[in-house]
Amino acid sequence: FRNYKMFDKILIANRGEIACRVMRTAKKLGVKTVAVYSVADKNSQFVKMATEAYCIGGPESKTSYLNQELILDIAKKTGTLFFSAKSHTSLFVVNNHRCTSYSPRLWFLE
Question: Each residue of 19-37: b (16+ CB within 10 Å) or e?
Fold first, then answer.
């Protein structure tokens, strides 16, 4: 499995250390990464580490990280697999948008 890739690019809908860990692993596997970030996080390490990064709104979570429709739209536009450490977010994506999604607690392929 060393030379096998299931996907080429993932959108990581997390920030901070979780996002950095996923990005380091993805880089080792040759997988490109897409970060989404709020204005408050524009200089964060996970944004710098990402292959691509997209600002999704203001510093308040309700106008950025909790905007699931916008995050999913970016995932679709960038052709990425969607990653979230929050299983309810992954369920939303899978159930409402028929999108491939991964969460530490879930694995769905459609």
Answer: bbebbeebeeeebbbbbbb
